[in-house]
DNA sequence: CGCCCTTACGTCCAGCGTAAATATA
DNA sequence: TATATTTACGCTGGACGTAAGGGCG
């Protein structure tokens, strides 16, 4: 017998309806029907009477309804029990640079910390090619990154091998970040020939597989290989270079919000489309704290 | 989270030892170790400190130990909860004639009824070839019968198809039941030629695949095909015929206990060896009452 | 080395979703 | 037919057993 079944039963009695309770519990109605039936089977007696109008508890059903509420009240007080109890523990998040601001800019992310003061949340910025290894080394932890559509299958299967679940958050498109000081920033769109006047900055790791292939389109008389987003942004703001960044994910960058730089696309030309994903332990035994953070991020970044 | 995990945790704290608790809980020590670890993971905090001397609860562990006991006390009062609460419901047992007395003769079988007065137990005597169909028609129910070793695989796989679990109870050997009035009963063993003087009685169903093949060894000038054990026993007691019966399973027959008839073997000759089995629903959601009866029978009839 | 607990891995069952069936007004 | 519940079935994950691994006296 699972504690969850008690919660299911309580919700069914409260709603006087299987279908309504199923909605509230975020499971399908047949699944709930079976769960309640199994619950009755282990208890050994009928707990609710079914009809096409809904359900009503039997005499004993009411008794067990009360007991169940009492039990739920006890364990909801436990740390990390699915109530809002005393959720605690350490949660590690590894995210690629472009998405970090989007996470941090979101007020509800900080509400997590207010809601669960004992929950320690650590956000580490890592380069895309390091993401998976960080997640695995620091299991259990959460990862946020992107993949090119062609990398999708290999990422999903690799993650699965390590007991990780991968979920798509949103699709994004790379664009050029350019300083508003640059006269070209006045245009609606850049042309391919404009690019030749612009030096491209990119990450110093040799696996920057987004920017590297496009180097040839830019002014290749300069070479800026830097190892932090801050360095790169600094360069862009001072109009010494441009960079390729995912558009949606970067929308909360300070330089963009304050109009120091702007994202621009190129006429008749598309930079890579990518899909942002979240990676987290597939096991249901993951700490509730971790799952709260996962749910929060998914809520904030889905359909971004 | 399962209610069982609370019981596991409570037992571990009580024993101050994983291995001892595992013994009391009838699971292996590694299984318990994992269960407790999962419990801690969902709660989010360490509940016990491990050492090579055993385990001790942490501060929070003690708190949750108390809460768990409280929760267990609540649901142990429910009908069929694994406490000795108010176990109720109907339990149907189908057993072949030869084993019925062994079940009924056992005092502990009747203690079941004393312990759980609301549990209705129905015992039906059925012929071996009808056993499976009765079990299926009356699902969930319990069956007790025997098979020839050659029938073993087919029975097990067929039962599995119907969601039934089959367990060996004990091995038995068929022997001749003969009236003590008969002078041959004075001998130590019968000879094959003695059999020719003895008419064989057997069940009137055409599927009596134990007795039928041996008909030729007996006095075949008589043919007694009867449809109840009482009729057959009556015949044997009055020395009008003999019959083939499994020896161990029949030991509680009144006629045998009171020395009216005795089982005899034949020199240099063996009647079929059979294996008695119990059949019951494989699902863990079976009513606790049914499982109590299954456990009782297994306890009484294993290594008979 | 022995005791106690953990990790690894394979097997089997339970939980849930999808789709289809059933019941009642 | 419309609404509510049940049944059927496939997939995935969890529970437990067996066997092997590690820490501490």
From TrEMBL, chains A, B:
It holds the Pfam family HTH_1. CDD domains: PBP2_LTTR_substrate (cd05466). Keywords: DNA-binding, Transcription, Transcription regulation. InterPro entries: HTH-type_LysR_regulators (IPR050950), LysR_HTH_N (IPR000847), LysR_subst-bd (IPR005119), WH-like_DNA-bd_sf (IPR036388), WH_DNA-bd_sf (IPR036390). GO terms for molecular function: DNA binding; DNA-binding transcription factor activity. It comes from the Bacteria. One of its GO terms (cellular component) is cytosol. Residues 1-58 form the HTH lysR-type domain. Belongs to the LysR transcriptional regulatory family. This is Hydrogen peroxide-inducible genes activator. The gene is oxyR.
């Amino acid at each position: 017998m699972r504690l969850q079944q008690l919660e299911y039963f309580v919700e069914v009695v409260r709603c006087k309806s299987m279908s309504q309770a199923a909605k509230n519990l975020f499971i399908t109605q047949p699944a709930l029907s079976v769960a309640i039936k199994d619950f009755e089977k282990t208890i050994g007696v009928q707990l609710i009477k079914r009809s096409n109008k809904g359900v009503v508890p039997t005499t004993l059903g009411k008794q067990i309804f009360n007991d169940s509420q009492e039990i739920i009240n006890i364990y909801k007080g436990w740390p990390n029990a699915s109530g809002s109890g005393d959720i605690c523990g350490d949660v590690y998040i590894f995210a690629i640079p472009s998405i970090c601001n989007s996470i941090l800019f979101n007020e509800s992310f900080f509400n997590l910390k207010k809601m669960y003061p004992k929950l320690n949340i650590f956000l580490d910025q890592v380069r895309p090619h390091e993401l998976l290894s960080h997640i695995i080394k620091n299991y259990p932890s959460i990862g946020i990154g992107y993949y090119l559509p062609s990398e999708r299958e290999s990422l999903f299967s690799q993650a699965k091998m390590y007991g990780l679940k991968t979920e798509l958050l949103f699709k994004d498109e790379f664009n050029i970040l350019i300083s508003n000081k640059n006269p070209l920033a006045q245009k609606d769109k850049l042309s391919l020939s404009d690019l030749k006047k612009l030096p491209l900055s990119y990450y110093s790791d040799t696996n920057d597989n987004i920017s590297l292939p496009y180097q040839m389109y830019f002014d290749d008389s300069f070479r800026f290989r830097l190892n932090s987003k801050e360095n790169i942004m600094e360069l862009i703001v001072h109009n010494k270079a441009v960079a390729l960044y995912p558009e949606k994910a970067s929308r909360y960058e300070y330089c963009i919000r304050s109009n120091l730089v702007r994202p621009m696309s190129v006429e008749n030309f598309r930079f890579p489309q990518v899909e942002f994903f979240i990676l987290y332990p597939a096991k249901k035994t993951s700490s509730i704290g971790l799952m709260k953070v996962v749910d929060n991020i998914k809520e904030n970044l889905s359909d971004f």
